Automatic annotation (TrEMBL):
Belongs to the cytochrome P450 family. This is Cytochrome P450. Pfam families: p450. The keyword Heme applies. Gene3D superfamilies: Cytochrome P450. Keywords: Heme, Iron, Metal-binding, Monooxygenase, Oxidoreductase. Coiled coil: none annotated. The keyword Cell inner membrane does not apply. Its cofactor is heme. The lineage of its organism: Eukaryota, Fungi, Dikarya, Ascomycota, Pezizomycotina. InterPro entries: Cyt_P450 (IPR001128), Cyt_P450_CS (IPR017972), Cyt_P450_E_grp-IV (IPR002403), Cyt_P450_sf (IPR036396).
Length: 253
């Protein structure tokens, strides 16, 4: 991800600045700050949920095997889009673990009256209460506070709804990556990267929490969140799987 981002920055940088490392660094810092932590937080929360719910691992692995078997065993981008259950699992994890209390922060540039009659004066700072809405039965129904890994996969099985409930699809009900024309443009790349990491993890490892381990709790600060940095999960290489550690060590030499 980082290498591709660097290349994109190089491609759009005017020639005189292309060889100025200070300019390139300043261009990259805000991009990496915005991109890296959001992807890593989403991945870590999904890992915690995998450890909390090992009963879903086999079903996820079966989907992975079937999808990539249909792709002639090749890891293709199109194959990642077909992982509907994995996509649903990540999205349900994200629903339970918002980045912040509210999203889509805006300042009213002029007086405005909403369709329900609410008057918003110029200069008003507003945002949507996404965190509260994520667990609201009025939004998600009576199972709003239950972790249902296939919630969004089942929605996508309805004819005509195949793409409307994927993780990258923004709706007024789910604003994890924002909404409208200002929605995060990098969400497609980020979601694919997260899927690759989780596919690799599921295929090669078993993961769970030790008996009696308390459920990880998000840390809140100034309306923002972070995953529980003190949580510890157990991981082991699955029986019959050989992770190519030698190849990894050679690449690092």
């Amino acid at each position: 991800m980082a290498l591709l981002t660097i290349q994109w920055v190089l491609d759009i940088t005017p020639p005189p600045e292309k060889f100025d490392y200070k300019v390139l660094t300043l261009r990259l810092i805000p991009i990496l700050t915005a991109a890296v932590h959001t992807s890593s937080v989403t991945y870590l929360n999904a890992m915690y949920d995998l450890a909390l719910h090992p009963q879903y691992h086999d079903e996820l692995r079966q989907e992975i095997k079937e999808v990539f078997a249909s792709e002639d065993g090749q890891w293709k981008k199109q194959g990642l889009t077909k992982l509907m259950k994995l996509d649903s699992f990540i999205k349900e994890s994200a629903r339970f673990h918002p980045f912040q209390a509210g999203t889509m922060d805006r300042i009213a540039m002029r007086d405005y009256t909403l369709s329900d009659g609410t008057f918003v004066p110029k200069g008003t700072y507003i945002l949507t209460p996404s965190s509260a809405a994520n667990l609201d039965p009025d939004v998600w129904g009576p199972t709003a506070r239950e972790f249902d890994p296939w919630r969004f996969q089942k929605m996508r099985l309805v004819p005509g709804q195949e793409t409307l409930h994927s993780l990258v699809q923004m709706t007024p009900k789910f604003t994890y990556f924002g909404h409208g024309k200002h929605a995060c443009p990098g969400r497609f790349f980020a979601v694919n990267a997260i899927k690759v990491l989780l596919v690799y993890t599921l295929i090669n490892y078993d993961i769970k929490f030790a008996p009696g381990t308390p459920e990880p709790q998000m840390m809140w600060f100034s309306g923002k969140t972070m995953p529980d940095m003190g949580a510890k999960a157990l991981m082991k290489i699955r029986e019959g799987v050989q992770v190519p550690w030698n190849d990894v060590s050679k690449a690092l030499d």
